[in-house]
Write a structure and sequence with these properties.
Layout (H helix, E strand, L loop, with lengths): L7 E5 L23 H13 L4 E4 L19 H11 L4 E7 L5 H14 L4 E6 L4 H4 L10 H19 L2 E2 L16 E2 L4 E2 L4 E2 L14 E4 L4 H10 L2 E4 L4 H17 L7 E6 L2 E2 L3 H14 L4 H11 L27 H14 L3 H9 L4 E2 L1 H13 L5 E4 L6 H15 L8 H4 L13
């Protein structure tokens, strides 16, 4: 069946870009990543490209060295709120953890930002997996994956019920017969394993509905959480076949929860856009020569995906029998599964997988990058992409000015926000099970 929807594009706007050396550009001040103007400039570029959302990932820890830029600096709620007050139309995704937050506080923050922006805010649900983040909070170490997800399910249930706990009559037509002027606030009286919350929330549901929900779940628990609650799901980097299988499994699970409005799936890309096919070929050759994985790189990816590098021929094609159960990995299980699926689908050896991990995967002309986006979308592998520029704002601007017009020349990508429509208006209540 032909697609009748449109390609979704989101812009990842963290720090100076995805490349570790992006912060140290010799012609730019280091302090730019702490300024609103830096992010506003990038958000306006995304707006010019009719992107659906700007997206801020988050890990509340400082990582900084000569080799790594500080990636997660400003609080996402504060930054998204400031950006959407200055840039119209585009949505903003706030990442916030269920492991080290309080549901009432988070529900209030996100509902407030959504209300004040006219219904343009989404919450990206994460279950923090890094022990370094746990060290910044009062928790006694990092909880197990099972405990993190059990808490997450209850956390999201509380938040979504709080969002819907005060229906304010925004127009006279919204007021029910005999209802008071302030509508119908109602306590949720939640009593659970992790939280006891009476409610209602002191911020009403906005006239455009609840905030939209985003998730990136690849483990069984993560897929279940996304299938039950999410409107948009980020897929870990994998092959087209692996991503297509992930989307199909997610949709099947969502239907099991009785959902008819299925989650949209987006994958991340960091394209390197060049002027000619000859230049693209030369770039690939240079990267192949310069970015050669070390023995330590191979050992690291082997441990991540459950392979013993000491007993595995690094040049032999990997098979399903090579992979052992991962258990409590510091790397999210969905990322591990995506890497395993990629290795098997592509027929990689351990050496080839390690090379793939450190080399850019999408180098091409604007036409080639546009064709890549269209091919995956038309094949129903994804519903769109999160563009993660290696350098902000330069690489995002190149994508918007050179690739987006090619997408807009097709029926599959909007030329304006009016054409895209008010997609988020009146989001349904979360399915209860």
């Amino acid at each position: 069946m032909a697609r009748t929807d449109q390609i979704e594009l989101n812009a990842w706007l963290n720090s100076s870009g995805a490349a570790d050396d992006s912060w140290l550009a010799p012609d730019k001040p280091l302090g730019r990543i702490f300024t609103l103007e830096h992010y506003e400039h990038a958000a306006r570029i995304a707006h010019r490209g009719v992107f659906s959302n700007i997206f801020l990932s988050d890990r509340p820890q400082l990582i900084i060295s000569e080799q790594e830029r500080p990636e997660h600096i400003l609080d996402p709620v504060a930054l998204i709120s400031a950006l959407l007050s200055r840039v119209p139309d585009i949505g903003g995704v706030i990442t916030s953890s269920t492991t080290y937050n309080d549901p009432y506080t988070l529900a209030r923050q996100v509902q407030s930002a959504n209300l004040l922006s006219g219904g343009r805010v989404g919450w990206n649900i994460v279950t923090s997996w890094n022990p370094a983040i746990a060290d910044n909070y009062t928790a006694a170490g990092l909880p197990s994956r099972a405990e993190r997800y059990a808490r997450a399910f209850e956390f999201v249930e509380v938040v979504t019920r709080l969002w819907e706990s005060w229906h304010f009559p925004w127009t006279e037509a919204d007021r029910r017969p005999g209802e008071l002027y302030f509508g119908t606030p109602a306590a949720i009286n939640h009593a659970g394993t992790y939280f006891n919350v009476k409610g209602p929330l002191n911020v009403p549901l906005g006239p455009t509905g609840r905030p939209f929900i985003v998730q990136a779940g690849g483990s069984d628990e993560g897929i279940s959480l996304a299938a039950r609650y999410a409107d948009l799901v980020y897929a870990a980097r994998s092959s087209r076949e692996g991503t297509k299988a992930f989307r199909a499994h997610l949709h099947e699970t969502a239907r099991g929860y009785g959902r008819t409005a299925l989650p949209r799936v987006v994958a991340a890309i960091s394209p390197i856009i060049v002027s000619s096919e000859a230049e693209a070929a030369e770039q690939r050759r240079q990267f192949a020569e310069e970015l050669v994985p070390s023995a330590a790189d191979e050992a690291r990816i082997a441990r991540t995906i459950g392979i013993d590098p000491a007993t595995t021929d690094r040049t032999r094609r990997l098979t399903p029998e090579d992979f052992q159960p991962i258990g409590e990995s510091i790397v999210p299980l969905g990322v591990v599964r995506a890497k395993i699926r990629l290795a098997l689908d592509k027929g990689f050896s351990l050496a080839e997988l390690a090379r793939h991990e450190i080399q850019p995967s999408l180098i091409g002309t604007p036409r080639q990058v546009a064709d890549f986006v269209l091919d995956w979308w038309l094949d129903k592998a994804v519903d769109g992409f999160t563009v993660s520029p290696n350098r902000l704002p330069e690489d995002l601007e190149i994508f918007v000015d050179q690739v987006v017009p090619l997408l807009q020349a097709t029926p599959y990508y909007a030329s304006s926000y009016e054409e895209r429509g008010a997609r988020r208006a009146g989001l349904p209540a979360v399915q209860r099970v």
